Amino acid sequence: MRRRPLLSAALATVVTAAMLVPGSAAAQAGCSGTNDGDVAIGDNTTVESPITITDCPSAPSATSTVPVKIVHTYIGDLAVTLVAPDGSTYPLHNRTGGSADNIDQTYTVDLSGETSNGTWKLRVNDNAANDVGRIDAWSLNLGGSTPANDFSVAVSPASGSVAAGSSATTTVQTQTTAGQAQTVALTATGLPAGATASFSPSSVTTGTNATLTISTTASTSSGTYPVTVRAAGGTTKTATYTLTVTGGSGPQIPDIDVAAVKQHLTQFATIASQNGGNRRSTTAGYRASVAYVKDKLSAAGFTVSEQACTSGCATGAGPNVVAEWPGGNASNVYMFGAHLDSVSAGPGINDNGSGSASLLETALVLARTNPTMLNKVRFAWWTDEEQGLNGSRFYVSQLPSTERSKIKTYHNFDMIGSTNGGYFINNITSAQSVHMKAYWDSLGLQPEENTEGRNRSDDASFTNAGIPASGYAMGASATKTSAQAAKWGGTAGRAYDPCYHSSCDTTANISDTHLNRAIDGIAYTLWKSAVGSSTPGADFSVAVSPTSGSVAAGSSVSATVATQTVSGNAQTVQLSASGLPSGATASFSPASVSTGGSSTLTINTTASVAAGTYPVTITAAGSVSRTATYTLTVTGGGGGSCSGTNTGDVAIPDAGAAVDSDVVISGCSATPSATAAVAVRIVHPYIGDLTVSLIAPDGTAYSLHNRSGGSADNIDRTFTVDLSGEAANGTWKLRVQDVASSDVGTLDTWSLNLTP
After folding, report:
1. Which of the following is catalytic: 48, 324, 385, 386?
2. Per-residue pLDDT tens for 107-141?
């Protein structure tokens, strides 16, 4: 923070920042607009000037321009930002220029990821006292042009089922959407082995149709396959036909649900947010990630072990997690691995939640389908990769030579959801990469060698020990070439992952398309490597009805647990329940059933059970374990609390990132008050540098202190906040940021009382 000693004591009076938004500018058709209405910029205020774009037919350009003219006597006070219609922000000027006058500059901004039409805003923030100014005029030119000849393609019906050895047909429909009709050539990719596709006719003029016939052989594997139909003319358009093959003699390869993988990513993000914002190998966030993965695998029937890294890892690093599925030739082991840790800068959702979550869901699908195994499958989640591949190196170093020789291939998955990603395979021409490449080739992806990632991930630990290795990656900080953008899409000249090793590596930093193509390739590789083609063994399902219930504390509630045999012979399964609140117990009558039978679940509570909602996991354990969820709501309990305190010290860095301190409220049955109390004690020698906010569980921010108080020491105050619109239970955060230089401090303690 720049100090101004000549300011009088009177200027130390708190200046409250106000958001001044003039009336909306008239909508401007086309891909550009101007707002020349003056907007006054007062001391310590934030103002906005809007431009509304309508009828722009194309996406914004990567070289969009923003001419800005601002009259101001001290531009070092100013932060200037372009705000897109979806709320995304693009910094243009950030307090540079010192005491120079005025801004009269045209900025070039990559807006290619935005939607053109909507209200764009120029936001100007004066961050210090003693100078005023105005937005004189600004313009926005999104670039682009109306596309020339264009068309669409669709298939009807969009899915079909065929017995192996037979054929299925669908109609490929095209339409001219802009310009003139054109001739397009039709092709199909993503077919299972043994299937072929033909079109009649093989090319059409847009506006007309063709018949697609898919023929299969008896050896085609049973399963569901997304077939991509391509129509190539002036541009290439695609549609997806979902082909289901039944009765095939090959192993049935499942389609892994990308939504289920993203649920695991959401859990990793939540774990990071609850543990300091990251999942570094030495932190509680990593250990919580280990527990999440291990619990899922154990419940599914895997043999799971934690391997402490006793040498070569960072001090305090958590363990590797290794899981084996029963069955298969133990002398032929196929390993699938990913590192579970993140860097300290952020939650590490692409790097490498993407690989970890994909392996976890693939493992769970393997358990649910329970196929006959030809070879042994082993999964691993590595610690301390970000500190030097240390966890995987330790694992390999502990293997006796006989065990090393049993591992026929190690497959690695690191950063497989990059938003501007490519399609890369480690050792792409090797024998161990055949299945991985074959799957991506079936989608027409034209994968390349992973040169950027060579020796930079855990496959190197295996390669260096003489174990064949391969793997998928979508790219990190290297930039996409023009040739790669032409064949894969995305933006040339930009990093494959723009949030590599950064705080923005969140759930928003994932490409569903890349992730989906990777996880299905993982499943394809696993099934081709280790799964037999015979009928699956005995398996069953479990369900609970009703799926939820409410009970007053001190009473009981019941539900029916039903089982069904889904393959093989019926078997006896043991029933148990987990996730119950303290003071509650569960019983089953009977405690074990033969699949196809049912049992009554009774949950008993005591008067001391905290009010709240609890997901209770019902587990049925036989040759494998299957689970169902019952949502229990307890009312009127006396065990909950509507207040909490965090006394843990949190260092506040000088002019650095915001820091958070958490208070978790659970079992609070009351609605938060309009006069909720937030008691805060912060030790800091210049509280005029600080912003302090309360963050509700849903992310809503409530400002408590905004750089007031000048050079006064410390904050020791109870703030009153209207929280009547919030839900009580969840993780509340006190967020503190030092926004200027020269001072540091400590968040000493804070308390939250929702019902004072």
Report:
1. 385
2. 999 998 888 899 999 999 998 888 889 999 999 99
